[in-house]
Amino acid sequence: MAELVQRYLDQIRAEHAGVTDGALADYIPELAAVDPNGFGLSLSSADGFIYESGDSAVEFTIQSISKPLTYALALDQIGAEAVDAKIGVEPSGEAFNEISVDHTTKIPKNPMINAGAIAAVSLIPASSPDERFAVIREFYSGFAGRQLELDHDVYTSEKATGSRNRAIGYMLQSFGVLDGDPDEVLDVYYRQCSLRVTSTDLAKMGATFARGGVNPQTGRRVTGASVVKRALSVMVTCGMYDAAGDWVSAVGLPAKSGVGGGIVAVLPGQLGIGTYSPLLDEKGNSVRGVRLCRSLSEQLGLHFLTVSRDSRATLRATYKAGEGIRVYETHGDLLFSGAEQVVRRVDRERNDFDVAILDVSGVDDIDDAARALLSGMSAALRAEGKEGYLVDPDGIVIRNEPGLEAVRYRAVDDAVAAATTWRDSGLRSTH
Ligand code: GLU
Tell me, which fold does domain 315-425 have in CATH? Predict the structure, then answer.
């Protein structure tokens, strides 16, 4: 069956193969030496199944796709407050290599432009540039699930022609954003940009972001969910150079591109996409990569702002299970908005029952907000002289909270039996 998806990906890649617009990045001489025809597409599902099409094994340098990773590493290592003191989160509307800081805050506007990315490198705790690079490489490798290697030629080429980045480094030092030697920080930055990846590595990295920091193939937690949320946020607002607005409206996936020709795109909770094609548009984004992602998003409905029906689907059925006994059956993922609807519905119908039985045995996942709302429901009903029982065989709402165990049942029948006993015992009138 997996070949259905494979065939679809091969076909959509083939549809874009004839596009030859764009040009190789040539401000780093070594980048102008790659094969302009390379074209790879990889997709990783949230459980780590990989689809590959075309040149998915061709290695190229990660370049600016390193930026959200090092930003995530900085957040992971020193925390959001310390990172925010040195790097903003506002889109800049400027070119990626603009020699600028924010007029008011005097720090780089965001971590996706070179100024912010160079500042992020300087925030990684280490006792030497080599150690700092080793930590960075290890972190990226955790996302990719394999050890990434340095492209020495690109690194040397980038270092030899890096006047603009040097200007940025020294500017940052003058504003007090960079402590230490700018050249040492820049050297690590050139090395991180020169790590080699394939489109499959990018898809795996994307899937690790999609899974909130757990690499679905290795099962290893590389970083925490709050770090990922931050990194994805800046990818949404600033990830595609100054074409971020176009990208969000047309494609709608947190993403980052690099002048090496790669794009990583993430659909949180669902999948990671990696594309490779080194011909770039004037903003620095891969022409075929952008078009491919746009088609994938349109055809597969991947836009992250596609209005989901989840919360409406949460309440599957409500029915009467005896005189004054009503069952509310939920399913799917129970998040705040779904739980809020359940609570509102139970509240609206509270004159129709004496006992409400909430059946969560068909729920796959639940978040803390939904759990808090639902576990409060029983107490709220009791305060009105009614009862609220929960059919929660796996203990997803009520784990081991003393006092609440009494209202938790393994099956609807057990809850209905308890409700009948309660009703018939006349306890009702004593409430
Ligand atoms: N190493 C490149 C630079 O600093 C990265 C550029 C990019 O991919 O946007 O110029």
Answer: Transcription Regulator spoIIAA (3.30.750)
Contacts of 290 (CB under 8 A, 6+ apart): 240, 243, 247, 251, 257, 263, 281
251: tokens are 């494609």
Ligand 1 atom closest to Cα of residue 158: 1
Instruction: Tell me whether residue 155 is one of the annotated catalytic residues.
Output: no
pLDDT tens-place string over residues 405-431: 678 899 999 999 999 999 888 655 444
What are 254-302's pLDDT values in tens digits?
A: 999 999 999 999 999 999 999 999 999 999 999 999 999 999 999 988 9
- The model carries a pTM of 0.84
Q: Domain 1-300 falls in which CATH fold?
A: Beta-lactamase (3.40.710)
Q: Among residues 259, 264, 360, 407, which one is catalytic?
A: 259
Please confirm, yes or no, whether 27 is among the known catalytic residues.
Answer: no
Could you tell me the residue ranges of all domains in the chain? 1-300, 315-425
Give the separation between CA 291 and CA 19, rounded to whole angstroms. Answer: 9
